[in-house]
Write a structure and sequence with these properties.
With about 425 residues, the protein is mainly β. The protein is built from no helices and 36 strands. The protein has a four-stranded antiparallel sheet with strand order 1-30-31-34, with no helix packed on it. It has a four-stranded antiparallel sheet with strand order 2-29-28-27, with no helix packed on it. Strands 3-4-5-6 form a four-stranded antiparallel sheet, with no helix packed on it. About 5% of the residues have low confidence.
């Protein structure tokens, strides 16, 4: 039996272990998780992270963390997005739960669902942002695509379907009360290419301002500076890609991570006019550019980088399986815990290259999404899209309507992304 085994991107991405860390280090004593998806700072020192029914708080720029919420039977099982307005009011976007959006009024000590305030079909909230009394929430990687907006600190909300432009929405950024950016993936008609939309009227209408040249990609995390220069990571299974804007998101240029081995980029940030950082959100490794993103070099730092926050030109922080910080004079502190991140395992099996079975071993309950593409990236179908418990699962793939030739399976869970090429006779 022919077997194609996939260990999510730990095999695909390889890095020179002697590569410099360029000032990034693992914060000693910081919490560990499968992946912290987001980080929210309310001022120059106080911030929050959360995952797996835990919320943590720092008051010293992420150097130390204390637990403010710990409830094994709670509903914050998979925190995809987190945004605190101040030291008491905060919001958490959830994937895979019965509710999608939660609010706290006491600094994260307790949380309550506010889904009942939003009239619309929600399957999770992947991105959150606020500016003054405006809160924007977008979803989801599960589909469909939608934008929820509150203009009164979360007391009331509007819901807008974005299905005409997008299959999924991942992140959002409020420039001001009128100008808003959202990122995600275009529709199936556009081969699920990463795209960015912009509104200049507070979210009433939207215009697509960027779309990737690569199929099956996600515009993941948005990072904007006050001067109008910004970047958005583009998660691609095969290439390191990002978008860059110089005019507050009206126009964007898609750029490669030239010189870097990092793919599937998640967190991304600009520290000054020329210094940029990014990282692989599914595996180890980061990359930096000192020329505004034209060329890149790899770093032996970070694991599952998924959100970056910049304090100043010399200090930044990044979430991943733990917390990482940047200072140009620092030395990397390595934790043995970083090598213990669990992995889902996949095998594509066939005796005759006509009938294929996908064998899956999940280390925890998660959402499994499997999509079939032609070898040149044209979307065909989604044979698997559901939640599955921890353990072994076998799926017989129906390829009866698929012609002979080469194909590509993309496999995504909440924690990882991978893929495999195969040939049907």
């Amino acid at each position: 039996m022919k077997r194609i085994k996939l260990l999510f991107l730990f095999i695909v991405s390889s890095f020179n272990l002697d590569a410099q860390t360029y000032g990034w280090y693992t914060v000693p004593g910081a919490p560990f998780s499968g992946r912290f998806e987001d980080i929210s700072f309310i001022n120059d020192s106080t911030g929050f992270i959360g995952q797996d029914n835990h919320v943590y708080k720092t008051i010293d720029r992420g150097d130390t963390w204390t637990t403010v919420y710990n409830n094994s039977s709670g509903n914050l099982t998979y925190i995809r997005s987190l945004d605190f307005v101040n030291d008491t009011l905060g919001f958490a976007g959830i994937l895979g739960g019965s509710e999608s959006l939660y609010m706290t009024h006491n600094g994260g000590l307790t949380w309550s669902s506010i889904d009942s305030l939003i009239s619309g079909n929600m399957t999770g909230i992947c991105g959150l942002d606020h500016k003054d009394s405006m809160i924007v929430a977008v979803g989801s990687v599960n589909g469909p695509a939608y934008v929820c907006i509150s203009k009164d600190w979360g007391k009331s909300w509007t819901y807008q379907s974005m299905a005409a432009n997008n299959g999924y929405l991942i992140d959002c950024f409020i420039i001001d009360s009128l100008n808003i950016l959202v990122s995600g993936t275009a529709t199936i008609a556009n081969n699920y290419k990463a795209n960015i939309l912009r509104s200049n009227n507070g979210g009433s209408t939207w215009q697509q301002v960027a779309i990737s040249s690569h199929a099956s990609t996600y515009a993941w995390k948005i990072f904007m500076q006050d001067n109008g220069v910004g970047v958005t990571s583009n998660e691609s299974f095969t290439d390191g890609l990002f978008f860059k804007t110089l005019d507050s998101g009206y126009t964007w240029q898609e750029m490669p991570l030239t010189g870097s081995n990092v793919i599937n980029i998640g967190g991304i940030a600009i520290l000054n006019d020329t210094l940029l950082f990014t990282g692989d959100q599914h595996s180890s490794g980061m990359a930096y550019s000192v020329d505004g993103g034209t060329s890149w070099s790899d770093l032996n730092a970070g694991n599952a980088a998924d959100r970056m926050f910049v304090f100043d030109d010399n200090t930044a922080i990044c979430t991943g399986i733990t917390i990482y910080k940047y200072h140009p004079d620092s030395v990397l502190v390595t934790s043995t815990m970083e090598n213990k991140r669990p992995q889902h395992v996949f095998e594509l099996r066939s005796n005759d290259q006509i009938n294929y079975t996908l064998h899956v071993n999940l280390y925890q309950k998660t959402k499994l999404m499997v999509e079939l593409f032609t070898i040149d990236g044209r979307y065909l179908s989604q044979p698997i899209n559901d939640f599955y418990n921890k353990g072994d699962h076998d799926f017989n793939l129906d390829l009866s309507k698929v012609e002979s030739g080469g194909y590509f399976l993309r496999l995504r869970t909440y924690e990882y992304l991978s893929g495999v090429k195969f040939v049907k006779k």
